[in-house]
Every structure is written in structure tokens, then in C-alpha cells.
Design goal:
Blueprint (H helix, E strand, L loop, with lengths): L3 H17 L1 H7 L3 E6 L7 H16 L3 E6 L2 H10 L6 E2 L2 E2 L3 H23 L6 E5 L6 E5 L3 E2 L2 E2 L6 E6 L2 H8 L3 E5 L1 E4 L5 E3 L2 H11 L4 E6 L17 E3 H7 L7 H13 L4 E6 L5 H7 L6 E4 L9
Parallel strand pairs: 1-2, 1-13, 2-10, 5-10, 6-11, 13-15, 14-16
Antiparallel strand pairs: 3-4, 6-9, 7-8, 11-12, 15-16
Helix pairs in contact: 4-5, 7-9
The structure holds adenosine-5'-diphosphate (ADP) and N-acetyl-L-glutamyl 5-phosphate.
Amino acid sequence: MSSGATRKHTALPKAQILIEALPWLVRHNGKTVVIKFGGNAMIDEDLKAAFAKDVVFLHHAGLKPVVVHGGGPQISAALDQHGIVSEFKAGLRVTTEDAMDVVRMVLAGQVQRELVGLLNQHGPLAVGLTGEDAHTITATKHQPEIDGELVDIGRVGEITAIDTGAIEALLADGRIPVVSSIARSQDDGHVYNVNADTAAAALAAALDAETLMVLTDVEGLYEDWPHSDEVISRLTATELERLLPDLSSGMVPKMEGCLHAVRNGVTTARVIDGRVQHSILLEIFTDEGIGTMVVPDEHEGEAV
Ligand SMILES: Nc1ncnc2c1ncn2[C@@H]1O[C@H](COP(=O)(O)OP(=O)(O)O)[C@@H](O)[C@H]1O
Ligand SMILES: CC(=O)N[C@@H](CCC(=O)OP(=O)(O)O)C(=O)O
């Protein structure tokens, strides 16, 4: 049996860890953080549960987390079951009308429900919605330019407007919004498939969020991918803009999204490793942030 003095002594390091978080708690109090949880980081059950705990922790620590989720691998698996081949052009899924039904079913009916369920194990907190709800995300048909030609990739949307009303009402009510990246169409009565990184960045900018955090399945933006695993730890908007033409595949919408966010009022945009448990807490409450941080140009040289 341990004495009172010993118990106090062994508990001391815990108190120190808590008190070290004080400056960050003060700095982030009341601030909105948009967290994009990528489909690739969502494959492991323990990671999903740890993610949910981190988000609930942020909520109770006085921040306002908004979750935007992906589901690329989950959509591809479901399309496969339906005998629909997955094809990507310019990093975006070619989405036929039939594929759109599957995308919507998987994102809104499966992935979002699962995240809402995990978050709500900690209390009546999470409310799921898609960009269709209350006109949260409106889009028009996106036609990427490939080799100088506009290409038809089906029901893929380009965001034209964000209405933050529903999300802000949920935040004001002490809830955690969980948003699926599906948009209402401004042209017809249908819906569009939107890349989840792009949706998260647009929401972060429209919500005037302090931070956009993109969780993925790599450590951050590699300097010379796939030849080296040297992570770029900090980039200004202008430095990122110069790098964009050389980026490939999944990193393109992420880094374009980070650039859009910091050019539109978000203080920092970060790409971090969703495979590391509690990476969100490391980013928000310590100096030992991991991954890649993008800052606006005017913050160059300042401590963020
Ligand atoms: N410069 C780069 N640095 C890191 N990853 C890169 C880079 N260029 C391309 N990638 C690829 O981007 C992937 C992440 O994007 P993606 O597969 O769309 O993930 P998510 O499901 O999280 O959105 C990485 O797993 C890696 O294969
Ligand atoms: C247009 C487009 O490509 N939409 C994506 C939406 C999901 C997504 O972005 O998921 P991740 O974040 O896991 O990649 C798709 O259909 O895969």
C-alpha cells in the first residue's frame, strides 16, 4: 500500500503535463478547428476510436471541432461490389449517375454514421449532415483541364457557395458537426461528389476557422515523394504555391485546400499523420507538432 506522500509524488508528472497545456488551452479557447479525416487513415478500428476521443477532448477543452470525413477506399470497395470500376482523372473519381448513388450511400449512410456513433459514445455530441443539408455546400459541374482539354468526369462538383448556418447553429448548441463531402447542385435537383479535402478547406475558410487539420496516411508532405521520406515541416502560402504544379495524386487536393484555407483567413493548415494515435492532440496542445504546417505569407518568421 502506498502512502499519501508517495501517491502525490507519482501523480506530479501528470499535473505537469496538464499545466504545460495551459498556454495552448488559452490560445485555442472558443476557436473553430476543421478536421478532415481521410478514408485511408480510417481503416483501423483502434485509430478511429482514438480519433473520436481526440475530437471529444478538443470539444471539452473549449475548442469547436468540425469533422469533415473522406471515404475513398470505402467507396471503391462498395463500387467494386456493385460491379462498377473505379477510375480517377486529375485525382478525382469519375462519378457516373449510378456511382453517385453508391458514393452517397457510403459517405452519408456508412462512414458518417460510424463516426457519429463513435463520437456519441462520449455523450450526445455529434450530429451528421452532408453538404446537401441546409444548403451547406453548393456546387456546379466540375470539368478539370487535362492536357489542355476540358474533361467530363460526371457528377463531380466544384464548390460555388458555402452556407455555414447549420454548422454554426450546431456549434452554438455545443454539438460536433460531422460533414460528408456531398454537395447540392446549383444547376439541377441532383447532388455532386466533392473531394473531401476540398470540402474541408472550403468549410474552414467559410467558418473563419483557426486551423484546418488534414489527417492522412503519410507523415505529411514529403519533399521528394516517392524517392525520399523527408517531410516538409513548414511552408508559407507562396512557397506552397510554387510547389503545387509538381505535386501528384492524393496530395494535390490536400495542398490546394491548405493554400485556399490560409489565403482565406485560416491561421494554419496542417497535413498530419492519422496513423499516429492522438496526433491531433500533439498538434493542438504541444510544441511538438508533427507533419506539414502551411501558414499565410504575412506570418513568415512569426511563431505560430
Ligand atoms: N509529396 C507527397 N507527400 C506525401 N504523400 C504523397 C505525395 N504525393 C503523393 N502522395 C500520396 O498521397 C497519399 C495521400 O492521399 P490520399 O490517398 O488521397 O489520402 P486520404 O484518403 O487521406 O485523402 C499518400 O498516401 C501518398 O501515396
Ligand atoms: C470527387 C472525388 O474524388 N470524391 C471523393 C470523395 C471521398 C474522399 O475524398 O475521400 P478521401 O478523403 O478518403 O480520399 C471520392 O469519390 O473518393
